[in-house]
Amino acid sequence: MTLPSPHPSRRLVLGAAGAALAAPWVATRAQPQPGIAGGRPITLVVSYPAGGGADLMARIIAPRLAEALGQSVVVDNKPGASGQIAGAQVARATPDGATLLLDASSFAVNPSLYPKMAYDSAKAFTPLAVLATFPNVLVCSAGFEARSVQDVIALARAKPGSVAYASSGNGSAQHLAGALFEERASVQLSHIPYRGGGPAMNDVMAGQVPLFFANVASALGHIRAGKMRALAVTSSLRARSLPDVPTMAEVGVRKYEVLEWNPVLAPAGLPADVQARLAAGIRQALADPEVLSRIRALGGDVFPGATPAAAAKFIQDQRTLWAGVVRERKISVG
């Protein structure tokens, strides 16, 4: 569930990174010192393409992580199979700290959607940190008759299945956000899957489909331009970039929180001292004012408590949440 407030928020897709960043990229401290894995460059394997949210987070954090550790950090994009290609590469790597995985929220969803993965995500990795969280925002077409989430619920209850929402595909973050909304709001919507978030959002703006659980970063400009209306954010607190938009809890949809987030993980079997040093380096990088500013500019915020224990608990909680939603709503990627 790859790129967006001082509040929990979403994975990002802002294209400043662009195609020019597709090649492996290196952040280096001026005077690297021998350290993790004998001081060799650390490869940060990113599970999504250049220009996407996970990639952007990698390029924000890598220079500061290199400074904190005193050695080079190489960003290497290995997209495909909803993050599983990168995940398999890191799961097979030697657990010496030289190879790390930077993934997206799909990491916690994949085990429920893909029963025959090449690795057991609960056992194949050592969590180091969750970098940041980004909320979604429920948006509607500018001409849609509903003016609030309560209106959407009333319409859906009056004629079950008559209100549709778009997503970037079966099993996508938007699909799961909609499925959880149906469960928490006790409504039945109609899911319209697209091949990608861009086409889905375009049809919402054109009025072809009324609803979309959008990435705050990618939707913000369209909301401000009046091409879509924001009904509620999916975080537990209001988003800094949309201060006038209520949370789902504020509009009466309880126990509803959907976040996009980016974990950093190492292969299982990583020595405790290496785990501690990597985690400390990540914390130092996240504390940098420029890193914080860039994350907030994307509508997100640094994950509170950037420790391996906090990351492990959060990932397990997310895995449990989405396993239940996938099971109860009978969601599949087929």
Q: What's the helix and strand layout?
A:
Elements: E1 25-27, E2 42-46, H1 53-69, E3 73-77, H2 84-92, E4 99-102, H3 106-113, E5 125-141, H4 149-158, E6 164-167, H5 173-185, E7 190-193, H6 197-205, E8 211-215, H7 216-224, E9 228-233, E10 259-267, H8 272-286, H9 289-297, E11 301-302, H10 308-329
Parallel strand pairs: 2-3, 2-4, 6-7, 6-8
Antiparallel strand pairs: 1-3, 4-10, 5-8, 5-9, 5-10, 5-11
Family: Belongs to the UPF0065 (bug) family.
Pfam family, one: TctC
Signal peptide: 1-22
Tell me what the structure shows.
With 334 residues, this protein is an alpha/beta fold. It is built from 10 helices and 11 strands. The protein has helices spanning 53-69, 84-92, 106-113, 149-158, 173-185, 197-205, 216-224, 272-286, 289-297, 308-329; strands at 25-27, 42-46, 73-77, 99-102, 125-141, 164-167, 190-193, 211-215, 228-233, 259-267, 301-302. Strand 6, helix 5 and strand 7 form a beta-alpha-beta unit. Helix 1 packs across helix 8, helix 3 (106-113) crosses helix 10 (308-329) and helix 5 crosses helix 10 (308-329). The longest helix is centred in the C-terminal third of the chain and has 22 residues, at 308-329. It is globular, with a radius of gyration of 20 Å. Residues 1-23 and 29-33 have low confidence and may be disordered.
